[in-house]
């Protein structure tokens, strides 16, 4: 039997999600409703970067809703991919990475993860998980 459709109004998306970093605002959207998926919103303020982190066993899909940001990953943060509005990115489970906003405006990403609630493990630097 199918479950009920759940809706979260944009005006109600304001609960902090996971570990917070200065300049990075993470908010729960759809969490604790499905055993397989959760959704959050991440806003990166101008000239900010997250801590190096990973999302445990959860694969992560990023949709760049607005602004121009980047994902840094790889050995010692040696790889970088710019994301523009409309772009998608897949961050595999346990992949160490960092979100970066070098621009003068906010970056807004819509995040979907493969788990009931979002997992964020901040680490002390590349390769220190």
UniProtKB/TrEMBL annotation:
<feature type="region of interest" description="Disordered">
    <location>
        <begin position="1"/>
        <end position="21"/>
    </location>
</feature>
<dbReference type="InterPro" id="IPR011051">
    <property type="entry name" value="RmlC_Cupin_sf"/>
</dbReference>
<dbReference type="InterPro" id="IPR013096">
    <property type="entry name" value="Cupin_2"/>
</dbReference>
<dbReference type="InterPro" id="IPR014710">
    <property type="entry name" value="RmlC-like_jellyroll"/>
</dbReference>
<feature type="domain" description="Cupin type-2">
    <location>
        <begin position="41"/>
        <end position="111"/>
    </location>
</feature>
<protein>
    <recommendedName>
        <fullName>Cupin type-2 domain-containing protein</fullName>
    </recommendedName>
</protein>
<dbReference type="Pfam" id="PF07883">
    <property type="entry name" value="Cupin_2"/>
</dbReference>
<feature type="compositionally biased region" description="Basic and acidic residues">
    <location>
        <begin position="1"/>
        <end position="11"/>
    </location>
</feature>
């Amino acid at each position: 039997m199918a479950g009920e459709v759940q809706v979260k109004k944009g005006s109600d998306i304001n609960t902090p999600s996971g570990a917070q970093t200065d300049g990075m605002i993470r908010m729960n959207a759809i969490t604790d409703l499905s055993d397989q998926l959760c959704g959050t919103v991440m806003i990166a303020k101008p000239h900010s970067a997250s801590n190096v982190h990973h999302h445990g066993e959860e694969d992560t899909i990023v949709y760049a809703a607005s602004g121009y940001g980047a994902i840094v990953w790889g050995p010692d943060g040696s790889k970088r991919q710019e994301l523009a509005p409309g772009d998608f990115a897949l961050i595999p489970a346990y992949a160490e990475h960092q979100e970066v906003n070098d621009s003068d405006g906010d970056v807004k990403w819509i995040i979907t993860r493969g788990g009931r609630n979002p997992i964020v493990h901040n680490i002390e630097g590349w390769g220190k998980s």
